[in-house]
Amino acid sequence: MLPESLAALAAVAGLLGLCVGSFLNVVIHRLPKMMEQDWQAQCSELRGEMASTAGEQLSLAKPRSRCPNCGHQITALENIPIISYLMILRGKCSGCGSRISPRYPIIEAMTGLLSAYAAWHFGPTVQTIAALALLWALIALSAIDLDTQLLPDSITLPLLWLGLGFNLWATYTDLSSSVIGAMLGYLALWSVFWLFKIATGKEGMGYGDFKLLAALGAWLGWQMLPAIILLSSVVGAIVGITLIIATRHGRNVPIPFGPYLAAAGVIALFWGTQITRGYLNLIG
To answer: At what angle are helices 225-246 and 207-220 packed, to 10 degrees?
Structure first.
């Protein structure tokens, strides 16, 4: 494909990524709250109580986005990715002037850049379409895990099945490698979880981490799992030590592992083959 055409494809994917990033901000903010509402309703049902109707019922579509401080509804002009934050709102709510977290444009920019690079890297192929779905899910999962230390089943499980589905046509790996990758991905962290729990009496990670690694195994195949586990462990250790030293982060305060798995998955998606060949050559 000509470089000009590839650049145009990357630009379109980047613009699409910016718009999706704006939606991902909604998912990141609302999905945990929707899960909490659902848990409360289930608990009420188990106790034989009437489900409480107090409070606004959330969905990803309703109600319209608004300022949590003053209730000002976000207009279409104020919802333009990145531009509205930097040039229109200047980082503050137009209703009350309260500061808006810079995380919103960061998520939008990250989604746009990764989407553009995926299109540039894979070109006009099914791999690009699949990569966009994977990247968007990983961004949402990482931010939710950072906020709540949760990796919602409503994202991780469809992501796993979607990986298996794409690899029916060997999009990234053959189907048998995909299935084995899902199995080994889950069992690898499940085994570590139980060994750590038996040795210390504590839970070192959550079940969402097992499912996320299983999903990455389903997408990229079992051959990529060693690289993903190694990369995520190294990055997690570096960030964890940095937090303890620089911010006096308590050693007993849990650090979510999902973002490191997601980051390792992104690296493996783009450069996993080269990394795997490199360490195989290194060990002989």
So the answer is: 140
